[in-house]
Amino acid sequence: MSLFNVFNISGSAMSAQSQRLNAVASNLANADSATSANGKPYKAKQVVFSAIPSASPEAQAVKVTKVVEDTSPAKIIYDPKHPLANEQGYVTMPNVNVTEEMVNMISASRAYQNNVETMNAAKAMLLKTLSIGQS
Amino acid sequence: MLNKLDAELSFHQTSLRVRGQRQELIAANIANADTPNFKARDLDFAAAMQQAMSQNDPAQAKTNQITKTSDKHFDALPTTHLQMTSGAGEPLYRPIIQGSVDGNTVDMDVERNQFVDNGIRYEASLTMINGQLKKMLAAIQGQ
Questions:
Q1: What is the ipTM of this complex?
Q2: Is the pLDDT of residue A58 over 90?
Q3: For residue B36, what are the domain limits?
Q4: Does residue B126 lie within any of the structural domains?
């Protein structure tokens, strides 16, 4: 039943987008974490989406296949008072680009909303179908 | 007699099926709006509908072969009566209006537009079926 599959597809996209939003939250929260559990500055995380087959062969769902670390260079700031500063007074900060993350956040939130609406429309259509021949 | 009732409703029933499939495809496009290298797909509704209707037509439908051990056994039903969700045209790929660097061809404006359009046409078919049923009931009851 193809309309029921819309729930699976939109649901997969919603969980994928919320994972992306999770990564954004982690990046923004750690935008200033100059050190972490392994002693190195925090590295920004990005999710990778990929299309996976769903119940019907043509319509594909989404899945986060991996979470990669951002390879862009770390930010280096001059702050001799910082406890982690090197001999020249420079501190290595995380490579989180706050502007980029904000854009990512809005994009993820809009995509999530789109999928919620898709699901609502499918639900309304199914309910209408159920009431064929009534009243 | 029941055959005629079935034939009366079959057009809009087929239309609902194809619209449902198209809705699923568009939902998949919206779901994959951020997936790299995903290509947006859609049904050519007219072609899909024609193909589905020709399968419904008993004269053209491919009947299932069964081994009969007596002349009084019935023939098998055409395939489409058994598999209501199958076969309504191959989905095509959408032409690219504005390409993106990651190879994704989903244009959210087009998809939203088509999604709403398809949903309304689905409901139109539902309304038609409801009308046909009411008409039939009125004829049966003779009021």
A1: 0.82
A2: no
A3: 2-65+75-141
A4: yes
